[in-house]
Amino acid sequence: MKAYIFPGQGAQFTGMGKDLYDSSSIAKKRFQQADEILGYEISKTMFEGSADELKQTKVTQPAVFLHSVILAEVLGDNFKPDMVAGHSLGELSALVANKTLAFEDGLLLVYKRALAMQKACELVPSTMAAILGLDDKIVEETCETIDGIVVAANYNCPGQLVISGEVGAVEVACEKLKERGAKRALILPVGGAFHSPLMKPAREELAQAIATTHFANPICPVYQNVTTTAVTDPEAIKQNLIAQLTAPVKWTQSIQQMVKDGATHFIEVGPGNVLQGLIKKIHPEATTEAAKIE
Question: How far, in whole angstroms, is CA 181 from its chain's centroid?
């Protein structure tokens, strides 16, 4: 069975999407539409902007989303998913690709989500850190012993877990986790504590936006970050999408469940190849590839 997977924030690169724009009239139309919807030339920033410009959450999230959903649309009849999943932001790309969300609605939700997260980041100094080479349970237990907010945020693959929270608490956690045997505890260059309780204000804003957005019945199940299971009910998809902002991204568990449910072939749709690498660590027997325009 074919599973299409969609990357999240961090997959962006300078010049992203330009090849799509130049090679497809469908892509050209979508990029122009995106510029109109957002009220600024995001296409120009994607094609010509610096790495620093692309790093801003309010730019990164719509940029990665656009690259992914436009590529999925350009694939045309070659895009035949049995199931889809997305890493964090990528879940919204997956929901446009499997027809739960219209392109316009998906883009507006991504933009509102990005702005709300940016605002939440500015309320409390916060960050994230990658913990490598340690059992998940040890990371979880250690976070629970630390004063302040620090939680397990991204279960990326076995031996790679990202923690998230207040700057001081994350720094203390990193030191304690190194003492407990972590190969590395690396503070990440991110704007704030995504997928932690510090995103609660953003979750409330996103909930309001989702309440007024139409969610249709999808053409195939989405494996959501919060539940890790196949979801097709539009109301359940909405609630999981809201919960995702303050809950961990259970990517390892989602891929394991997709494999149990029959996935053998994973196709990454969007910029970069990070998810293919993670899947090879989660399930080495899986076939992985990047989506390509014929």
Answer: 28
Q: Do residue 117 and residue 239 come from a single domain?
A: yes
Tell me the pLDDT tens digit for each residue of 158-200: 999 999 999 999 999 999 999 999 999 999 988 899 999 999 9
Question: 213 and 69 in one domain?
Answer: yes
Give the mean model confidence (pLDDT) for residues 140-156.
97
Query: Does residue 72 sit in the same domain as residue 100?
Result: yes
- Count of domains observed in the chain: 2
Core vs surface per residue 74-111: b (16+ CB within 10 A) or e: bbeeebebbbbbbbbbbbbbbbbbbebbebebbbbbbb
Of 195, 196, 254, 283, which one is the catalytic site residue?
195
Q: Is position 214 annotated as part of the catalytic site? A: no
Pairing of strands 2-6, 265-268: parallel
Q: Which residues contact 10 (CB under 8 A, 6 or more apart)?
A: 60, 272, 274
**Known active-site residue 24:** no
Establish if 192 belongs to a structural domain. Answer: no
Judgement on whether residues 170 and 271 belong to the same structural domain of the protein:
no
Q: Which two tokens stand for residue 259?
A: 């494999």
Residue whose tokens read 């409330």? 204
Residue whose token pair is 């027809």: 99
Task: Report the CATH number that the domain containing residue 20 is assigned in CATH.
Answer: 3.40.366.10
> Could you report the per-residue pLDDT of 199-242, keeping only the tens digit for each?
999 999 999 999 999 999 999 999 999 999 999 999 999 999 99
User: Strands 126-132 and 83-86, how do they pair?
Assistant: unpaired
pLDDT given at position 191: 83
Residue 25 within any structural domain of the chain: yes
What is the residue range of 139's domain? 125-187
Catalytic pick among 43, 88, 93, 254: 88
Q: Which of 52-61, 74-83, 226-235, 262-271 has the lowest average pLDDT?
A: 52-61
The residues pairing with 180 across neighbouring beta strands, listed in sequence order, are none
Q: What is the mean pLDDT of residues 112-131?
A: 95
